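Session log. Operator J.P. requested a structure for one protein chain; no other inputs attached. Running the standard single-chain path with token output.
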Amino acid sequence: MTGINLYDGFKNEITGEAFRCISYNKEAFTFEWIVQPNGYIPFEHILKQDEVFYIREGEIKILIDGHEHIGIPGDTIKVPAGRRHIAINNKPQLLSCIVEYKPGLDSYKFFQCFGGLTLDKDTNKKGQINIPKMLYFSKKMKAQCGARPTSIPAPFLKIVSNIFYLAGFFLGWNNLYTKYTNEK
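Structure written below.
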């Protein structure tokens, strides 16, 4: 692998999340997601793909379009593409899941950028990665996949994405893109 090797995994110390790729092909991007007690995804988001959680250990709380779903070991929770959702580990023990994005699209490269920003600690105090840079990377790679924060309306996101792409071009963010993905 080149750039960030997702099979080695990476952690977000602030959110208590750890990610490690298990497999990637056009059908699915599959990764292990381990969340420390009280760990969380730092923002509600919408994906362009189905997201399926297979709970192995602990308990997960997912809000899908505002409706709470609880998953325990052996459960599967599917979040259909286009649905707003957020997940947390609301218990005092470790949460371990296998997560699949279906179809796989270009999720590996997207996660290389996400992982690179996380490893470089380019996050805010809630553990959220640098959104302007992630928007630059997404536009640079012509991302088919992606997570849109629900706090940003889709039409506005498209506009700011173009602005950050231009800004990132002049600020040299392509060097980070190359570092993370090994692509120019």
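Operator note: Residues 154-171 form the longest helix (18 residues).
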